[in-house]
TrEMBL record:
It comes from the Eukaryota. The lineage of its organism: Eukaryota, Fungi, Dikarya, Ascomycota, Pezizomycotina. This is Uncharacterized protein. InterPro entries: AB_hydrolase_fold, SidJ. It comes from Capronia coronata CBS 617.96. Pfam families: DUF1749 (PF08538). Residues 349-372 are annotated as: Disordered.
């Protein structure tokens, strides 16, 4: 898939990856067709722990919906690299992540789209969801009075690192030993040295993998004081009080220029969420907290994605339905809800699927060559239905 790299933070040598894929209708031998578009709207992806460009892999499935040679293309997909991307997540915190996301958005508007009014929707995966809620619910620590405004936020696979760690602690004696050793080192180290003291990797790896991990980030992710005194990263634990949710989720929409409608897409079969946690109930608690004072709302397209692993990977029909149909369908509908420029006239009239099924002579052919986001989604959806053997059944 063709991409473009931008340096958005020269001092830290941080990059933006822009997807510039073309449709199957583009003729590379002549370079002819509709030409390469410069879309006005941006979906900016924020990865989780260990993620860097093209990780998780499903970001390319999302980008495939927006070929740049489609003449009416209004959306582009970009992926932001932060200091904490890849194996360096343990050296930085959410404050730095959010400052860098802000810098990336400012760069996009000043140097790529050349418009201060460019709509930007953030999409976070896993710990990237912690970045998103931190962006929306905390005040800026930079000289700027506010963060760049965004039009929306998509939270995909928001999970509690603390509950994932403790699930391992309770089920595996070696992980328990690792956790207790990390706590012992943290307790014996003066607080002022927590940010600069790295835990021995052979001690911490069973808790959070083989990556350098400062005491400060360990305490933020493991949050041993929770639920009464949550660490910076502890936004999504199921045992957090309503008061804590009100102080985090409840702040979404309270600042000028922040997203007023957000969407949650937890993975239904997330291997990093203990089986005892009711995901639907947890989603309802988040929704109630967001909407409590009327400043913001949770999109009607929010859903627990059935059969989805944490990164929605897999080649089975169920996995591809979760990734290509359920997740992408919600993303498209949400983008159209908060910004627009997704659904064409036919889809808005409810005719998109009928056209795609060949309800009229010539219409099916037009749909097969259409490179609009919705047409690409529909082709993939129908292909999966046919493979499943239930063609014509709406999922």
């Amino acid at each position: 898939m063709e991409t473009i790299l931008h340096i958005y933070h020269p001092k830290r040598n941080l990059l933006l990856l822009e997807y510039a894929n073309k449709s199957t209708n583009f003729d590379p031998s002549t370079g002819t067709g509709t030409g390469i578009q410069e879309p006005s709207n941006v979906l900016l992806f924020v990865g989780g722990l260990y993620d860097n460009f093209r990780s998780p892999a499903y970001i390319e499935d999302v980008a495939a919906l927006f070929p740049r040679d489609f003449e009416n293309q209004k959306w582009r997909v970009m992926h932001v690299q932060m200091s904490s991307s890849g194996r360096t997540f343990g050296l930085y915190d959410l404050d730095r992540d959010v400052d860098e996301i802000s810098t990336a958005i400012t760069y996009i508007r000043s140097s790529i789209t050349h418009s201060p009014d460019t709509p930007v929707v953030l999409m976070g995966h896993s710990t990237g969801c912690q970045d998103l809620i931190h962006y929306l619910s905390t005040s800026t620590s930079s000289p700027s009075p506010s963060r760049p405004r965004i039009s929306g936020a998509i939270f995909q696979a928001p999970v509690s690192d603390r509950e994932a760690i403790m699930d391992g602690v309770h089920s595996d004696p070696a992980t328990r030993q690792s956790y207790e050793a990390c706590l012992a080192i943290a307790t014996s180290t003066p607080t002022q040295h927590h940010a600069t003291t790295i835990l021995p990797i052979h001690v911490s790896k069973l808790c959070l993998g083989s990556a350098p991990l400062s005491i400060a980030r360990f305490l933020s992710l493991a949050s041993p004081g929770s639920p009464d005194s949550p660490g910076m990263d502890d936004y999504y634990s199921s045992d957090l009080s309503d008061a804590r949710l009100s102080d985090t989720f409840g702040r979404i929409g309270s600042s000028r220029g922040t997203a007023k409608t957000v969407m949650f897409l937890p993975s239904g079969s997330d291997e990093h969420v203990p089986m005892s946690i009711d995901k639907e109930f947890l989603l309802s608690r988040w929704k109630r907290a967001v909407e409590a004072d009327g400043a913001a709302s949770v999109s009607q397209y929010s859903r627990v994605i059935r059969n989805a692993l944490h990164d929605i990977s897999g080649s089975s029909i169920e996995a591809r339905t979760a990734r290509l149909v359920d997740m992408r369908g919600s993303v498209l509908r949400y983008l159209d809800e908060v910004v627009g420029d997704i659904l064409g006239d036919a889809e808005q009239r409810g005719q998109g699927e009928e056209i795609g099924k060949g309800g009229a002579d010539g219409a099916a052919t037009r749909h097969q060559t259409d490179s609009s986001p919705w047409a690409i989604y529909e082709r993939d959806r129908r292909a999966i239905e046919l493979e499943r053997g239930v063609s014509g059944v709406r999922l």
